[in-house]
Amino acid sequence: MFWILKLIVVILLCAWIFRQVRKPSGWLGRRTVRAMNLGHSAMTDWGLQQMSVPKNAAILDVGCGGGRTVHKLAALAPEGKVVGLDYSAASIAISRETNADDIVAGRVQVEQGSVAALPFPDCTFDVVTAVETHYYWPDLPADVREVLRVLKPGGTFALIAETYRGGPFRLLYGIVMPLLHAAFLSDAEHRDLLTKAGFAEVMTKHVSGKNWIFAAGRRPTT
After folding, report:
1. Per residue in 158-204, pLDDT tens?
2. Torsion angles phi and psi, residue 127, rounded to 5
3. For residues 6 and 19, what is the distance between their CA atoms, to the nearest angstrom?
4. Residue 88 near residue 29, CB atoms below 8 Å
5. Which residues contact 79 (CB under 8 A, 6 or more apart)?
6. 57-76 pLDDT tens trace
7. What is the CA radius of gyration of the chain?
8. Does the structure show a pLDDT above 60 at 24?
9. Is 86 exposed, middle or buried (0-12, 13-18, 19+ CB in 10 A)?
10. Are strands 108-112 and 125-131 parallel, antiparallel or unpaired?
11. CB atoms < 10 A from the CB of 114, how many?
12. pTM for the full predicted model
């Protein structure tokens, strides 16, 4: 009987952790967001180095989490404006703390909302980023098309993530990703996802020995 109770506790704990990864909530969720800020920083730096960010760019970071990427983007576009969007209230709270000075200065805005219905007009942004988040989007093909809608012609969309199917840690992630109910795409499937959504100049990059992926495309100008 005792082992059954232990098993139930373990299952409930795992379910809570998986829920926090997808949508952090409460004070423990805020701690989770802060940990992700640190844990994803090096990967984010690498990903942002793979793309060109104009100094005056209007930028959207979808699934902004704790706001570390928003902060990095604001530094890359000192004459521009960065908007962070997340559907988690806990993430929004931490993101606003992380970017408090830039928010006061009017250079950063952090809002709650969903990628499924981005609360912005067509052709608003020069750059859209999504760091360690697209796995959890409710309808990935439709949501990528929604990103295309808010990009200006010639604008760039970049996915940056720590796992793809076929990477060096594919066996581990092959177990973890289904448990998270997360999309687990190969390199080719990432490129196909962007191409079918209507993006041009689609490309992917990786780092030797890591499971990181950078996938990007541009909205056609015509």
Report:
1. 999 988 998 888 888 888 788 778 889 999 999 999 999 999 999 99
2. -140, 135
3. 20
4. yes
5. 55, 56
6. 999 999 998 899 999 999 99
7. 18
8. no
9. buried
10. unpaired
11. 16
12. 0.84
